[in-house]
Amino acid sequence: MNNKSIIRLSNIIGIISIILLVYWVFVFVSITVFGLKVFRENLTETFYLSVVGILALMFGSLIINVMFNLTRIAEKHNQDELNESKRTTKKLGIIFGLSFPIVFALLFGGDYLTSKKKESMLIASAKSIVENNEDKSNKLLNYSFNENWIAETDDILDLYSKTDKHFPYVSVIVADSIDKSKVILGFRDYYGKVNDTIQPIKKDFIQETTKEERDYLDNVFYKNLDKVRFSASDGKYELFYPYIKNGKKIVLYFSDYQRYGKIGS
User: Fold this and answer.
1) Per-residue buried b or exposed e for 122-132, using 16+ beta carbons within 10 Å of the residue's own CB
2) Alpha-carbon gap, residue 77 to 158, rounded angstroms
C-alpha cells in the first residue's frame, strides 16, 4: 500500500469518526434535554462507551496523516480533482445536514413506542390483577376511613405488587371530605397498628395532584367518568385506573420510573 492509499484510508477513517461523534453528541443531547427513553440499559452503556472508540479512531487517523505529511501531498493534486472533490463534499454536506431531522424523528418515535408499550403493560396488569382477585378488589371498594380498612388495603396492595414482577408502585385513591370540603385521599403504605392509641388522620392521606389530575379524578368520582388516564414524562409513568362496581368507585394509581427506555422489553 503506497502513501497515497494510506492517506486516503486515514482520511476516510477520520471523516467517519467525526461524523459518528457528531451524531453521538446530537443523540445524547436530544435524549437528555427531552428526556427520551429509547435504549435498553446495556445498550445505553455501550452507547456511552462507544465515544472512546470513536475518539481513538480520530486520533489514530490524525497521527497517520501527520506521519505522511498529508498537507504537502494534498497540494500536488490538480485543479480538476479539487473541483470534483468540492462538488462531492457539497452533496455529502447536504445529505449530512438533512439526516439530523430524521435521527431526531426516530428518537421521538422510539420514545413514543416506549410510552405506548408501558401504557399497555400497566393497563393489562391492572385489569388482570383486579379480575383475578375479585374478592380483594371488592374489599377495596368498601371504603371507610378506619384502621381496619387502611391496614387491609396495605396488605392487599402488597399482594398485588408481589403477584407480578413487572408490577410497579400501586396505591388506592378515593374521594372523601374534610370539614365539608372535598378531598382526594391516597392509601398505600400504612405503618400503624390496628387498635393503636394513635389513630390515622385524614389529612395525612391527602393525595398530592396537579390541576389536570384533580379535574380527571373529579370527573371519575362525581361525573361517572370510566376512563383510564396515562401520562409519561422523563421516564416517569403514571396510570389512573378506575374500578367501578355497584355505584362504588375507587381509582388504582400506578407509578413507575424507568431510567432507561426500551422498545423490545
Assistant:
1) beebbeebbee
2) 75
The residues, any chain, with a CB within 8 Å of residue 38's CB and separated by 6 or more, are: 31, 107, 110, 111, 114, 261, 263
Other CB atoms within 10 A of residue 76 CB: 8
pTM: 0.64
Distance CA 190, CA 148 (A): 11
Rounded to the nearest 10 degrees, what angle do helices 3-33 and 41-67 cross at?
Answer: 150
pLDDT digits (tens, 9 = 90+) for 151-174: 899 888 888 777 766 667 888 999
List Cα–Cα distances, 175 to 4, 25, 42, 221, in angstroms. 78, 48, 43, 7
Instruction: Tell me how many degrees the CA angle 28-112-207 measures, rounded to the nearest 5.
Output: 100
pLDDT in tens, 64-109: 666 555 455 555 554 445 455 556 667 766 766 777 787 777 777 7
Instruction: Please name the amino acid found at residue 252.
Output: L
Instruction: Take residue 145 and report the three cell numbers written for it.
Output: 376511613
